[in-house]
Amino acid sequence: MHIEIHGRRDADAPTLVCSSGLGGAAHFWMPQLDALTSDYRVVLYDQLGTGKSPATLPADYSIDAMASELRTLLASHGIGDYHLIGHALGGLVGLALAMQQAPGLRSLTLMNAWSRLSPHTARCFSVRKQLLAGSGPAAYVEAQSLFLYPPDWIAANIEQLQIDDRKHVAGFPPTDNLLRRIAALQAFAPDAQALANIRQPTLLIANRDDMLVPWQCSRELAEQLPNARLECFDYGGHASSVSCPDTINTTLRRFLASVIHDTEYAA
């Protein structure tokens, strides 16, 4: 599996592990690097079967398997204590790590994640799968930004999005891998007791204008976790770490500082 380690390299550096959403790619977190690498060691990786981590995923692929793969990857690079930042599917991986009682997991930041798939999200994925089957990767990729970003942000960044779309089509993952990853996130349904046993400090970040995952899913998840708080923003869409990096980076730094230095988190 492809891994990148950025930022501080000294032994005392707190480590952040960033886990991406459905796309699975390390480069999703580029808008966060400058803000985080001065104080932290930042670990990025391409999830198995995506990007620079080619593999044929099994038919019964699961979020638990993704969490186990990440545990193995971190252990192989000698990474002990860490704080997990996960976006959507990556947030589910973080929950799975906590439920597996993964050693070294010190906190969770879950961006637009959920404990129960919303019927709205299920319908979005149904449309996306039909688009892929009927029109192919180019149409799937072009539609993707509609689910990720606010309309005005798309309009202001259309030229860069068109460049990115061409890259994504050229590097499109095997269709079976993508469908198995979608099936894995759709099947993720932890029971209430398993969530209640998660003790790590947890920050949930949601956006009220998220087109893909209703913000209420984060509120519901926050209510199920014993040591969680929710930050909900009016603007940013599903991928607010890209569309509103300054807001997200400030929020991440504030939460991580409160956990690492054992101080009260101030919204």
TrEMBL record:
PANTHER family: HYDROLASE, PUTATIVE (AFU_ORTHOLOGUE AFUA_2G14860)-RELATED, MONOACYLGLYCEROL LIPASE. Its EC number is 3.5.1.-. One of its GO terms (molecular function) is hydrolase activity, acting on carbon-nitrogen (but not peptide) bonds, in linear amides. This is Putative carbamate hydrolase RutD. It comes from Halopseudomonas aestusnigri. Residues 196-257 form the Peptidase S33 tripeptidyl aminopeptidase-like C-terminal domain. Pfam families: Abhydrolase_1, Abhydrolase_4. Involved in pyrimidine catabolism. May facilitate the hydrolysis of carbamate, a reaction that can also occur spontaneously. GO terms for biological process: nitrogen utilization; uracil catabolic process. Belongs to the AB hydrolase superfamily. Hydrolase RutD family. NCBIfam families: RutD. The keyword Hydrolase applies. It catalyses: carbamate + 2 H(+) = NH4(+) + CO2. One of its GO terms (cellular component) is membrane. Residues 14-118 form the AB hydrolase-1 domain. InterPro entries: AB_hydrolase_1 (IPR000073), AB_hydrolase_fold (IPR029058), AB_hydrolase_sf (IPR050266), Pept_S33_TAP-like_C (IPR013595), Pyrimidine_utilisation_RutD (IPR019913). Keywords: Hydrolase.
